[in-house]
Every structure is written in structure tokens, then in C-alpha cells.
Amino acid sequence: MNVQPIKTAPLLSALNFTIMKILSKISIAVLAIVCFIATSASAQMSESAAKAWVKKGEWRNGFKLKLYPGLDNVEFAKQYQANKKYWDEAFAFITNTNLDTLSVGKHAIDGDNVFATVTDGPTKELDKTGWEAHHNYLDLHLVISGREKTGVMNPANAKVTHPYDPAKDVENYDVNSVKGDYYIEDPSTVFVFFPQNSHRPGIHVDGYDKVKKLVIKIKMAK
């Protein structure tokens, strides 16, 4: 009986080709993952880099007021770079407007993207105030005259008392669930609150029974 020899060369060649194709696909997938991670890392500034960017002040364009010490530098850098036009409009409004004579009520800046509201009235005792946060808009708070105390906290671990209301863009939290940090608002400093910065404004400061205040809403970049 004649036994035909097995031709291994074509089989090995085909096998090698298949393996190479698989390895090539794996390499491409790994490269894509590495590129994605690198891009994400570069897109998200570190705290130190964001703080340096804020301090450098290229965003100011003549804006001279201080930013409060609890500012989320990373989020500010991210939001400013995503919506530079809106921020520049908000800062220009503060710089170029006579805030002392600005009337109480709503003031248009850029349609629904950026708008301001002025209030003028008494502050409240601590137990009469509450925590709030917003999803679609961030807040710029500036006391025009007077002084008030404002609390700031991360609502991640806070107990929700009133679930998010999209019509009002507000969510409220239990005043006893998280203590937060407290600051004095005065005309020298702008306070910037992002969705992760629940705030408790309007708290009475001795000697200042009435406060005129500006709040500018800027649409969040998602």
C-alpha cells in the first residue's frame, strides 16, 4: 500500500497566517485602548495643573474679582474651556455693569445660555436655610452689598429631601446629613458652584441684615 505523505507546509503556512491575523487584531485593540486612556487622561486636568491654570489668569480678560478658596479648579478649567464664550460673557457682565444700580429681577445676557438674577432682601438664620444643587446650570454668586454666609458640600453622600425637579433645575438635601464648609460672601469674591457643589446660601452675618446679590446662571457643558 502506497502511503501519501502529508503536505505540512501549506497547513503551517495557513496556520501562521491565521495567527498573525489574530495577533494583528489584538495589537490594534490594545493600541486603541491605550490611545483612549491617554486621551482621557490628557482631557482631564490634574488638580495641580488646573490650579496653575486658574492662577495664571488667562481666562480673566480684565476681570479683577477673586474666586472663592473652595473653587473646584478642575471643573472650572473644564467648563471654561468647553464654553469659553458663555464664561467671558458672564465675567464681562460683572465687569461692565454698574451693579450698585442694577435693578432687582432677571437680566438677559445670552438667552437661555447665560442670564442673571438680582435679589435684595434680608438674610436668614442658619436653621431657616437649606442645601440645594443644580444639574443643567452652574451658579456664579456675587454679593453686591452686604455680607452673608454660604455653605458648600458634595451632595454624593447627602440625603435627598426633594428629588431633582427639571423644571426648576434644583435638588434639595437634608440639612443634617452633611455639615459642609462655610464661607463669608462679600463684594470682593465670586463663588462658583457646579452640580457637585451643593450650596446653602443666604445665612445671616451679624451686622448685615440685608444683602443685595447677583446670581449668574451658565449652562453646563456635558
Strand count: 12
Q: Tell me the fraction of residues in β-strands, as a range.
A: 25-35%
Give the helix/strand class: alpha+beta
Described by strand count, sense and barrel closure, the largest sheet is: 6 strands, mixed
Can you give keywords for this protein?
3-stranded antiparallel beta sheet; 2 domains; Jelly Rolls; alpha+beta; 6-stranded mixed beta sheet; 222 residues
Quick structural summary:
Helix content is 31%, strand content 32%. It contains 4 helices and 12 strands; from the N terminus they run ααβααβββββββββββ. The strands form 3 sheets. It has a 6-stranded mixed beta sheet with strand order 1-10-5-12-3-2, covered by helices on one side.
Give an overview in words.
The protein is α+β, with helices and mostly antiparallel strands and 222 residues long. It has two domains: 9-43; 47-219, YhcH/YjgK/YiaL (Jelly Rolls, Sandwich), CATH 2.60.120.370. Helix content is 31%, strand content 32%. The strands form three sheets. Strands 1-10-5-12-3-2 form a six-stranded mixed β-sheet, covered by helices on one side. It has a three-stranded antiparallel β-sheet with strand order 4-8-7, with no helix packed on it. Helix 2 crosses helix 3 (73-82) and helix 3 packs across helix 4 (84-96). The radius of gyration is 27 Å and the shape is globular. The model is unreliable at 30-42 (pLDDT under 50).
